[in-house]
Design a protein that fits this description.
Distance between the termini: 53 Å
Number of domains: 2
Number of helices: 1
CATH class of the largest domain: Mainly Beta
Order of helices and strands: EEHEEEEE
Number of strands: 7
CATH architecture of the largest domain: Sandwich
Shape: extended
Strand content: over 45%
CATH topology of the largest domain: Immunoglobulin-like
Length: 151
């Protein structure tokens, strides 16, 4: 590997961006604060390289948990409607939200203090053909499912 600004170490968990004083870099770190800025030793008139450590981001994927709720969505693909069937073990508030491929909210419904078997039918007759994202929030657990709407 070539030596760039004195850096000779390259790993799969690092990202490098090269810039100069006319192009400041400052990205927000999900853990708080900025990851890196474009100055090198306080000087602002020299090129620099920004190093991003992606280790925490990659390891964070392991923290995703599946909900403690049995959920089934059918039929998928859907023509006019689909049903979300779920069995709640505790009394929970349940929220159903459906987003289009642009991230726009196209459907929402809240059910208060539900438990046991739920069969929620969601009408998609008025929606355009395409891919949608269903998000179900049951208490503190989230479930997402890709829904395909056909005409």
């Amino acid at each position: 590997m070539p030596n760039i600004c004195g850096i000779t170490e390259y790993t799969t968990t690092k990202l490098y961006i090269v810039g100069g004083s006319g192009y400041p870099f400052q990205f927000d770190n999900p853990g708080g604060g900025a990851w890196f800025e474009n100055t090198l030793g306080g000087a602002t008139d020299i090129p620099c390289i920004s190093e991003f450590d992606l280790t925490a981001t990659v390891e964070g994927i392991n923290n995703i948990s599946t909900p403690d709720v049995d959920i089934n969505v059918y039929p998928n693909p859907a023509l006019n409607s689909f049903t979300v069937q779920m069995n709640l073990k505790e009394r929970e508030n349940v929220e159903f939200t459906l987003y289009n491929s642009l991230g726009q909210l196209v459907y929402t419904k809240n059910l208060s203090k539900q438990w046991g078997m739920i069969n929620e039918k969601i009408d998609v007759t008025s929606l355009a053909e395409g891919i949608y994202l269903l998000k179900v929030n049951a208490g503190n657990e989230f479930y997402t499912k890709k829904i395909i709407k056909q005409n």
